[in-house]
Structures are given as structure tokens and as C-alpha cells.
Write a structure and sequence with these properties.
The complex is a heterodimer. Chain A is 35% helix and 12% strand. Chain A has 14 helices and eleven strands. Classes of the chains: A alpha/beta, B mainly alpha.
């Protein structure tokens, strides 16, 4: 720790003398970062508002699907615009997810269907809460499961030996979301540009001095770390990394946040867990079919995710992107051309090490007696099975059961 | 250049920058004054202490006022808020009409946008439709925004400071989440009718008012908890059929015009959420000595405590048809069969009288007022007061805030401010006019505490360490800069009464005044030195850690490298560079200093 601080600060002293920064990156600054930087990375994306799984990953081989959704169903795969993009002869992607189709073909994309929370709740709040705490139907879990992962991981000797970085867990949101709430440190920022002291002249140095002197308490300690982190980010200067390999991020807030996650990854600041969320999925009214409201949301979503994977290129070998939404929507469309709150939903797992090109999860069917409470897609995969597998197989934690108290995973999905 | 030669240069640089630093002891406090009781804190500290614990920090002139009245008398006055004239708070409430409205009125006047959208019933929206939708969405946000504005403004301006502190305490103890479905329509009535009238009253009455509030009934789902299949029910008399129907098992599918779309169709039997949190978070505490069976039986006791016309924001109603009328045992006490609403009332009696509740509430109050780990001796006495007075909150608070432990040196500035306390104390120190825009509340949210929007039922943390981390300090510093830069409505440094008087005084005198006005009159010698010095603070103040021994650099150049690719949120005062000089600079540094993070 002491050495890390010394090297980093020393590098800054040199920068201010006008010495060659690229030289520094290869030596002092670089040596302390690489160890932590080139580890596995998990990017978690939350579709808040309950994305309509049945129109996202379309069961076009299930005749009941078309009976339940006379005006909003996505047409069977065909050589014309607006049809589902076939995956395996039974499922297809919504046409607006076309940017993600190449990832399927390269075996990097694994959709999971009929997945979600065993809780019966149809409240957005409760269901998001459960998905983020990782404890369905238990409301008073104080922390989120990603923070429990960080805390559990932080105790192993091997990880301690690596240089700790303040950017291990970053959420591109204004507030720390429930999923990352807890004792392990997490940095929340709405944009990389916000992670700076808004002082001019020498006031930033003065403020730093206020925290580096005086009594040794938690406030001074956190303050010193803050200034270290600000400088670390400034030196790494993630904003200089432009999208590569022709990646084009949507100009939406979500697209720009994924761009900044890519920049953080390329800047090698030791990012391990990244989080972003995107709203607009609560399509009760007039959600549209191949085009319309939901299609627009999916287009933005897929465009951003595809740009991120393109941009990261080979680095995707170390990266897994996990998407989630609090529940699915009713199997039958409602009287307003929309869908009401349902039960099981769909997730995507995406990455170089993902056993993609296959739709995971047992399909429960859409016949009336197969539906949950006679109306919703039934649950066949508990979301904790997916989370546990990602944590174990990708991040390499031995026993994910501690992250999900009271849950014993049955079968491995084998998605990783 | 080789690596060893880099190290030589580094060592040389550090050697240059690092003059030995002075001691880091806090400046010695003034001579202890004689007080009626032999308290550890000096007379001056006692004045500042009560203003930072029973109030949200001192406004200009407050220290002098409390000193003139006397600390003990001022505490006694604050414990009787009804006798304090509070025109400032009245003005704020009048300016925010939704505060006085019923949930039903709010729902009608500011309908959720999705309801309006559903009523349009058109597949293609016209330009007019979308304009109207946008207006509706804006208006519907007002319901929550006015509560947030009021919370900050009252804390800043109310003369009944202790009342605002305890209202904040109980609203957090009995937290609800305004983001859950229609909850935002319930919170004005919740604070106005359940929390505020009982904040210094009897705990049992507070607990009962919360238990019957639509806000809590909805937040923790008790409104849809109903008797399990096969359990004994109440005989509903000649209209037994309608009684059965009220159990809700035959609700029809909701119409498209339902006011609140996310409400489930029907109750699904017993729901334990409220029962569990009632025991764990509201009364006994997690180690308070209850079992899972107690939770189930408490949940059974509260079946039928529900909402009348929940979709139209109706009030509390007890529905006998939903109630489990069987015999129940709760914490070793028997609830006899065949009763209705009395079951829940008796549970609240049992819980209020339980020694675990006295201890749990006493501990939490002592943590709020004294320190994160309050002395056991004090908790014991506060719990004893709770038992002796049947849960008289005013007396429990009195026991705590008049104790030797409260006035101990170790309690002085022992608490870390929450973001809400930080913002409000800064606004008060600067003599700000109440901000009637949502801006201040947005800043509180930006600092990590979106008001009325804590999701989980455990509320915002009462311990300091939970608020202090890397991102938090950064935002707190930027908040101080933004305040001094005049970016918060109503809070310009020029409003600080001493501003004009010292604006052209010597820097040392300015620093003295700022330390007195903003940092409680005490700052470490280092802090004072940094505020006074014009140049190169790091080079001159190089401490033990080599990390601080850097030469100042041209931040402006680096800022340019970091130029934003995406457009910034121009309304966020924490996202703009702040250029400060002179007295404003000293104020900005003081607000960003470690000392200002404590109360």
C-alpha cells in the first residue's frame, strides 16, 4: 500500500515536471496497476421497469404466443423487415436487437428465458429490491449481492496482495444502487467528468492539504483516498480512449455510460465490477410490435451493448456482460396494446468466455395451464442460479452460496 | 532515463517539498467556564453542541442567543415546540399547497402520467397529447418535490429545531419509499398526521398512527395481507356474503383507468412483511427476542388492517372479512379467538411494553443525539425513562440531552453529518433564505441521500462510517465549493451577516471569522494555516506521508484534457467548475474541510 502510494504520487511529481508520461505508464505507474487491472470484469446492466421478455426473446415456435398477442406479437422469422431474427428455430430476437445478432453468431451471446425471482410480487420496487439484494421475499437484507461479492473477495490473501484500487467497483449512476450497497467501497458517478474536484487555481491543493493533515480519523482517511483516486483517474485519463474497431455508441445516456465503462476498462484502473441501468421498459400502453415504443428501447439497448463489445474487442475475453430486469410481463396483451406486470423474464449473458449460441433455461410453455397464475410466463430458472454461476465461473469465487443466503443452486446452467 | 534515476529525482523532489510539519493537535479550547453542573464540555462547547445536535447547526446569532437564554433553558424550550412561535415554518407550508392536501386530492389533482396516457386511448399520440403528458408528468413529480423542498426548508428555517430533528428521526425510523407505486401520494399525510403530531409524544400513539397510515400499509404490503385459507374468520352477520367478497378473492381484472396500475389484483393470503419489520425495525430490534412464529402470529393479528379503495387512495379501514379470527400467541401473550381490530391494537400494546423496545428505541435515540456507540450507562437510563413513562418520547429525549454523557468531551463533534445534515447546516451557517426550489434537495440526493427515497425499510444509516467513502468526500467538497460560489438558491456568501464587515479585512481576521461562523470556532492548526496561506499549501504542509508532497500543478491544463465528450447536466451545481477568491474562497474551503463534515 505504502509503495503504491509512493509510486503513484511520484509519477505525478514527474508529470508536473513535464517528463514523458508514456514512459511513466510503462514503468512506475504501470507496474502497480497491471496486476489488478487485467483481471476479470463483470458489467451488470439493469433494465428497470420490467422489460417484456416475450417480445425481447421471441418464442416464435410456440403457437400460443401468437394467440396471446394478436396485435403486438413479433412475426415469425422471414426474409422481410420486422420479423423475428431466428436463433435456434424456436426462439428469435426482436428485430430491434439486430446489433446483438452477430454476437450470437460468434457464440458470445447466451439468452436465458423464463428466468427471474421466485417471489410472487408484481411490484417494481419489491422485485428490483429482491433482484439486487439477492434475497427474494426478504426485505431487510442490508446489502446488495454485488457488494457481498466485493466484501467476500476482499478478504482473500491473494487479492489483498494485488494493489487495491478505488475503481474496483464503479456504478455509472448518481447514487449507489441497491445491488452495490454495503460495506465494500463503491464509486458512484454519473459521468467520468464528474469525478473531479471542482476547484480552480490552487484550491484543489488546499482542499487536499486539509484532508492530508490534522487528526487521523475516518474522514481524513477517506479524503486522502479520494484525492488519490481523483489523481489516479486524471493520470489514467480514460477520456482519451476513443471507441475502437468502428464501434458506434448510441448518443443516449445509456450508450454514453457504456462508452465510459469501456474507457475505464481501457484505462486499466483496476475495474472489476461495473454497473449501469436504463429505464423505460414499463410498457403498459401501446408498446408496439416490431416498431414502436419497446422497439425503440431495445434498439438503444442493443446498440449500446453491441458497441461496447465491438469497442472492447479481444478484451471481451475477460469481460462478461450480465443483463437483468425485475420481472417479465403478462403473456397476454392488455386492452391498451401493452402488457401488464408478469412473472418470469429473460436475461442475457454475453462475453468471450460465455458458451453462447444457445438459449438457456427450460421453456415452460404458454398454454393456459402452463402459465403462472394462469397469466404469466412461469419461472424455470432462479436468477440466483445465473448470478452464482457468473460469480463462480467468471470471477472465480469458490462458494457463491454465501452471497445468496438460504439458496442452494440445483443444476448448473452451464452458460459459462 | 532509467528507473533508478527516476527514484533519485523523486527522492530529491520529496526532500525539497517536505519541511517537517507542526503538530496536528486541535487548537487548545478556551478556559472552562463555570456551569451549574460540572460538565466536561466548556460553556462555549455546550452551546455549539446543543445547536449541532438538537438543531441542524447554528445560524448567525444562534450561539449568542442560546448563550443568553442558557443552554439548559434552551433545551427545555425546544422540548416544548408547541410553545415556540414558528412563522418561518408556517410560511413554508403555506407556499407548498400539496403539504396540506389529502392523498385522494393529490391523486386527483396530480394523476400519474400513465393513467392520463391510458385515458387518451389512442394508438397514435397527437402533438397535443404528448404535450399534455409531459405537463402531467411534471405536475405529478410535484407531489414528491414539495415534500423534499419542505423537508430541507423547514430544517433550515424552523424555530422548532428539535421538533424537526425528531421528525427526521422518526420518519427515518418508520421509513417508507416514495418510489414504490403510488406511495408518493401518501407521504404528505404520513408526515403530517402520523409522524409530526407524535414525534415528541407517546411512542404507542406514534406506533399506532404509523400502523394505520396508508403510507406504511402500502409500503410494507399489509393492506393486502388476509386470512389464510382454512383459518377461522369473523362472522360478518346477515351480510356474510359481502363479507366474504371483501376478503378480495373475487376482484375483477383491473380496468385500464385504474389510478394505480402496479397494484396487484388481489390479496394472496398472509403477508408477513409489515409484521417482520414491526418487530425487527420498529420496536424490539433484531435481537429483541422474538421467533418466526411470533412474526407469523403478528401478521395474522394485522390481517384486515387495510386500505379503503386503495386505487383511489382511500384511508385506513379494518375489513373483518380479511381478518384471521383464530387464537394467537405473541411473545408469550395470548390473543383470544373471535376478535377483530383489537388483535393488532393489543400487539402494539405488547410491543410498546416490552423491555426490548425500550432498549432499542433508547439506543437509537442516543445514537442520533450522542455518538455512534453511545455509553451503556446512558442507554440504560434512557430505557428506564421509556419504561417508567410508558414510552414518553419527550422524556426519553430529555434524559439523553441533559445527561453528563451528552455533554462529555468524547461526544463533542463525534457525529458525522448525513448529507441532509451537511446541506442544511451549511445553509443555516450561511444565513440562507429557505430554498423553495427543489435544488437544495437535489443536492442532498446528489450527496447520496435522496429524500423520501430510501428503498429498504431500515432507513438511512445512523452511523457515520456509512456516509464516508471516496465518492462521498468528493461530492461533499464540491458541494462546499458550489455553496461558496453561490450556486444554491437563497445561499449567497454575501448573505452571511459578517460578510460585509470583514470582506476587506486581513486574511487572518477573515479566517478567524469563518472558523467561528462555519467550523464551530475550532479548527486544527493545520486547517487554520491552510486557510490563511496564499500559496502552495501542499509543499508547505507536507505531512508524514510522502503522498502529499507534490508540487502544485496547472489543473486548468489537465481539465482541458478531460473535456467532456457528452453534454453535462447544466443544472447540477456540483458539476461546474467553481472559481473562488478572497473571502468566498475561505468559506468554500471551510465548507469542504474535514471539520465541517462533523457535528
Amino acid at each position: 500500500m505504502q509503495r503504491r502510494v509512493f509510486l503513484r504520487s511520484g509519477a505525478f511529481a514527474l508529470v508536473t515536471l513535464g517528463l514523458n508520461p508514456s514512459f511513466l505508464r510503462r514503468t512506475a505507474f504501470a507496474t502497480e496497476l497491471r496486476g489488478a487491472a487485467r483481471g476479470k470484469i463483470l458489467i451488470v446492466l439493469f433494465q428497470r421497469g420490467a422489460a417484456d421478455a416475450l417480445n425481447m426473446v421471441v418464442p416464435h415456435g410456440d403457437a400460443d404466443y401468437y394467440a396471446l398477442r394478436p396485435t403486438i406479437a413479433i412475426p415469425r422469422p422471414a426474409a422481410r423487415a420486422g420479423a423475428a431474427l431466428d436463433l435456434d428455430g424456436f426462439f428469435g430476437l426482436h428485430p430491434a436487437l439486430a446489433p446483438m445478432r452477430p454476437l450470437w453468431e460468434r457464440g458470445m451471446l447466451a439468452p436465458i428465458h423464463a428466468v427471474g425471482s421466485p417471489s410472487a410480487t408484481r411490484s417494481h420496487f419489491d422485485a428490483q429490491d429482491y433482484m439486487e439484494s439477492g434475497t427474494p421475499d426478504v426485505k431487510n437484507t442490508p446489502d446488495g449481492w454485488l457488494n457481498r461479492y466485493l466484501a467476500a473477495r476482499g478478504t482473500c490473501a491473494e487479492c489483498e496482495a494485488k494493489a487495491p484500487t478505488p475503481f474496483r467497483a464503479v456504478t455509472m449512476t448518481e447514487q449507489t444502487p441497491r445491488i452495490l450497497a454495503g460495506p465494500a467501497p463503491v464509486i458512484a458517478m454519473s459521468s467520468l467528468d464528474d469525478f473531479t474536484i471542482r476547484a480552480t487555481g490552487s484550491d484543489a491543493e488546499r482542499l487536499e492539504a486539509l484532508y492530508r493533515t490534522g487528526r487521523a480519523d475516518i474522514i481524513h482517511g477517506a479524503g486522502a483516498e479520494t484525492f488519490d483516486a481523483v489523481k489516479m483517474l486524471r493520470a489514467a485519463n480514460p477520456r482519451r480512449y476513443q471507441p475502437e474497431h468502428g464501434a458506434e455508441y448510441p448518443r443516449s445516456q445509456f450508450g454514453q455510460r457504456l462508452l465510459q465503462i469501456a474507457q475505464l476498462i481501457k484505462a486499466d484502473v483496476g475495474l472489476e465490477i461495473a454497473f449501469a441501468d436504463v429505464g423505460g421498459w414499463d410498457t403498459h400502453v401501446n408498446q408496439g410490435g416490431a416498431t414502436g415504443q419497446l422497439a425503440n428501447r431495445l434498439g438503444d439497448f442493443a446498440g449500446a451493448v453491441a458497441a461496447l463489445t465491438t469497442d472492447l474487442g479481444d478484451r471481451m475475453g475477460d469481460v462478461v456482460i450480465l443483463t437483468m430486469t425485475e420481472f417479465g410481463r403478462m403473456a397476454r396483451q392488455n386492452g391498451n396494446g401493452g402488457t401488464d406486470h408478469g412473472h418470469a423474464g429473460a436475461m442475457f449473458v454475453l462475453g468471450g468466455s460465455v458458451k453462447g449460441g444457445k438459449v438457456y433455461g427450460r421453456w415452460p410453455g404458454l398454454a393456459r395451464e402452463q402459465l403462472y397464475e394462469g397469466r404469466d410466463l412461469a419461472l424455470t430458472t432462479d436468477f440466483r442460479s445465473v448470478f452464482g454461476e457468473v460469480v463462480r465461473s467468471h470471477l472465480g469465487i469458490g462458494s457463491p452460496s454465501a452471497l445468496f443466503p438460504g439458496f442452494a443452486a440445483s443444476d448448473r446452467l452451464g452458460v459459462l | 532515463m532509467t528507473v533508478p534515476s527516476v527514484l533519485v529525482v523523486l527522492t530529491a523532489l520529496i526532500g525539497l517539498g517536505c519541511a517537517p510539519a507542526g503538530s496536528s493537535a486541535v487548537g487548545s479550547p478556551p478556559e472552562p467556564a463555570i456551569t451549574v453542573e460540572a460538565r466536561e464540555q466548556t460553556a462555549d462547547q455546550q452551546v455549539r453542541h446543543v445547536l449541532s445536535r438538537l438543531a441542524f447547526g447554528a445560524r448567525p446569532g444562534d450561539v449568542e442567543r442560546v448563550r443568553a437564554i442558557g443552554v439548559d433553558r434552551w433545551i427545555a424550550m425546544q422540548l416544548q415546540p408547541a410553545r415556540i412561535r414558528d412563522t418561518a415554518a408556517e410560511r413554508i407550508v403555506r407556499a407548498l399547497p400539496t403539504l396540506a392536501q389529502s392523498s385522494r386530492e393529490l391523486l386527483e389533482q396530480y394523476p400519474p402520467p400513465q393513467v392520463v396516457r391510458a385515458q387518451m386511448r389512442r394508438s397514435e399520440m397527437s402533438r397535443e397529447d404528448s404535450l399534455q403528458l409531459r405537463r402531467t408528468a411534471q405536475q405529478s413529480r410535484r407531489v414528491l418535490a414539495e415534500m423534499q423542498i419542505a423537508k430541507v426548508a423547514r430544517a433550515v428555517a424552523s424555530e422548532r429545531q428539535l421538533e424537526e430533528v425528531v421528525v427526521d428521526f422518526w420518519a427515518n425510523h418508520f421509513t417508507v419509499f416514495a418510489g414504490k407505486g403510488p406511495e408518493r401520494y401518501f407521504i404528505a399525510a404520513y408526515e403530517r398526521e402520523a409522524i409530526r403530531p407524535h414525534a415528541l409524544g407517546k411512542f404507542r400513539e406514534l406506533l399506532g398512527a404509523v400502523a394505520k397510515s396508508p403510507a406504511m400499509l402500502f409500503y410494507l404490503d399489509n393492506w393486502q395481507s388476509s386470512v389464510e385459507e382454512g383459518r377461522p374468520r369473523l362472522d360478518c352477520g346477515p351480510r356474510a356474503a359481502s363479507c366474504e367478497q371483501r376478503a378480495g378473492r373475487r376482484r375483477s381484472v383491473r380496468s385500464s383507468q385504474s389510478a394505480v396500475r402496479s397494484l396487484p389484483n388481489r390479496p394472496r393470503g398472509l403477508n408477513e412483511n409489515y409484521a417482520r419489520e414491526l418487530l425487527e425495525l420498529h420496536t424490539l430490534g433484531v435481537d429483541g427476542g422474538y421467533t418466526q412464529q411470533d412474526i407469523i402470529n403478528v401478521a395474522r393479528a394485522f390481517t384486515g388492517w387495510t386500505l379503503e379503495q386503495p386505487r383511489r387512495s382511500g384511508g385506513f379501514i379494518f375489513r373483518p372479512g380479511m381478518h384471521d379470527a383464530g387464537e394467537k400467541a405473541v411473545l408469550g401473550k395470548r390473543l383470544s379467538a373471535g376478535r377483530g381490530i383489537e388483535d393488532g391494537e393489543q400487539v402494539l400494546d405488547i410491543l410498546t411494553a416490552h423491555p426490548s423496545t425500550a432498549r432499542f428505541i433508547a439506543t437509537k435515540l442516543a445514537r442520533r443525539f450522542v455518538s455512534d456507540d453511545p455509553p451503556a450507562s446512558l442507554v440504560d437510563r434512557a430505557a428506564e425513562t421509556f419504561r417508567r413513562t410508558d414510552g414518553d418520547i419527550r422524556e426519553v429525549v430529555r434524559t439523553i440531552v441533559t445527561s453528563q454523557e451528552f455533554f462529555a468531551s468524547s461526544a463533542y463533534r463525534a457525529k458525522v453529518k448525513s448529507p441532509f445534515e451537511l446541506v442544511v447546516s451549511a445553509l443555516r451557517a450561511m444565513n440562507a433564505t429557505p430554498d423553495m426550489t427543489p435544488r437544495s434537495a437535489q443536492v442532498v440526493a446528489r450527496l447520496g441521500q435522496p429524500l423520501f427515497l430510501h428503498q429498504a425499510p431500515n432507513g438511512w444509516p445512523e452511523r457515520g462510517d456509512a456516509w464516508i467513502n471516496t465518492g462521498a468526500i468528493l461530492n461533499r467538497i464540491n458541494f462546499g465549493l458550489a455553496m461558496a460560489g453561490g450556486a444554491i438558491p437563497g445561499a449567497h456568501p454575501e448573505r452571511w451577516p459578517r460578510y460585509a464587515e470583514i470582506t476587506s479585512a486581513a486574511r487572518a481576521n477573515q479566517v478567524d471569522a469563518v472558523i467561528s461562523g462555519f467550523l464551530g470556532g475550532e479548527a486544527s492548526v493545520e486547517t487554520r494555516g491552510i486557510l490563511e496561506r496564499g500559496e502552495n499549501p501542499l509543499a508547505a504542509n507536507c505531512e508524514l506521508r510522502a503522498a502529499s508532497c507534490e508540487l502544485p500543478r496547472d489543473t486548468a491544463v489537465i481539465e482541458e484534457d478531460m473535456a467532456p465528450a457528452a453534454a453535462r447536466n447544466r443544472r447540477d451545481p456540483l458539476s461546474r467548475p467553481v472559481h473562488l477568491s478572497g473571502l468566498n474562497e475561505i468559506i468554500g474551503l471551510a465548507l469542504g474541510a474535514p471539520e465541517f463534515q462533523r457535528r
